[in-house]
Predict the structure.
Amino acid sequence: MANNLFSQGISIREKNEKDDSDDKADFKAAHNEDQALDPALNQRITYRFDRHIIPWLFGIWLLAFIDRSNIGNARIDGLATDLKLDGNKFNIALTVFYIPYILIDVPSNWVLKYFGAGYYLPGLLIGWGIVGMCTGFVKNYAGLLVCRFFLGLCEGGLLGGMILYLSMFYRRRELLFRIGMFYCAAPLSGAFGGLLATGLAQIHHGGYNRWPWIFIVEGIITVAYGLVTIFFLPATPSHAKFLSEIERKAAVHRMGLDAHGATQASKVESEKFSWHWVRMAILNVNTIVLSLNFFAIITPIYSFSLFLPTIISALGYSSVKAQLFTVPPNMAGFFAVILCTFLSDRINARGPIMIGCCSIAIIGYIMLIVKTRPLVHYGGTFLVAVGVFPSSPAVMGWLANNLAPHYVRATGTGLQIAIANCAAFIATFTYLKKDAPDYTTGHAINLGMLVFSLILSTTNILYCKWENRQRLRGQRDYRLAEEDEGLLGYRHPSFRYTI
């Protein structure tokens, strides 16, 4: 006997086998005539996703940032000397990483669902872990460039893939805090990576001294973690084995409700790729503005992560102390990401959070530029970390909220990250040896980028408010009569942009 529980066609057929009585009661209470989910069931689903997905993504992103930025730690532990990285060779090695990283972003998002995110994301992790290990064995500059290229190729699809992956499981107003819960690993990697590098750089064994062991040991850890993760990440809510059958159906249904007409598919697996969705993603005002905004944000983030040990060394500290002094600013950034993303979901707004964080970071760079005591400069690094690190998940979550359905979000998110990572070509050349010890030019570039971000955030807030008012007044209802409703996506009159 079939009971029609969802007006959108979701049904559950009674089975002869015994069902859990609690699940039955939950499912009956989960829906009413207006298709609202029972709060208790919804909360339990969210909690289980938090418990079974977020910790694994946190570990993946922690290792990604450590493996990406450990070259900064290796530099002050003998890499530059042993490989004869004179002139701008070190900066070029940093830049090579971003060429494949940028090119692979969008295609990687397109194939994420096809291969299954539960296998695809750990596969990327294993790939770059192997490359990371190989970096420890390079003997010359050419070898370093090759390793950096393949590291970028393996890491390129990760961040966009993780954002897209979470958007399959969490509703829009729940998404940013979950992005923050894994992204906070980025500043933590600076703290943890600095401590780890300090210890590993003391190893002298088998003709490999100091810096090679940073790459070798961290690469081994990455590969091992990737192999374990494969067995635990579900591909979609429908494949989440840690949910009951009733919970899986409710998890799928709540995502349909959250789409507000942006998709006609009953679940994400049913959505098909079309160049129509690609065009929609590219032509969205949010995609253009927030991609440029992420470009502005990621410039100081990358330069901060790569050059913080160098900046602190310029204050007069030894290499060991410089590594250790990178820990407190990064820990401040870690807590700031958690706090700001939680607050953003609570008030259901992204732009105001970004404006506040960018303003704090601007003050930090002013402190770094002003010629004063080293202690004041060091204090400026705290404000920079607190300001720039939360801005990154905020701008990514903002765009993910405002694009739908799946392949529009996949294209837009990938394009945003690809455009943003072009900032690496600026970031890797912001702190040059000739500008030491003040690095005024590098600080000024980052300060200007943050001002640019403030302008873009304000612009997008005003646009989203205007468009939402048009839809509320019925100014976009004509689309339902003139166009195929199944192809409207985020242009559906019922869909509202997040501010």
The radius of gyration is 24 Å.
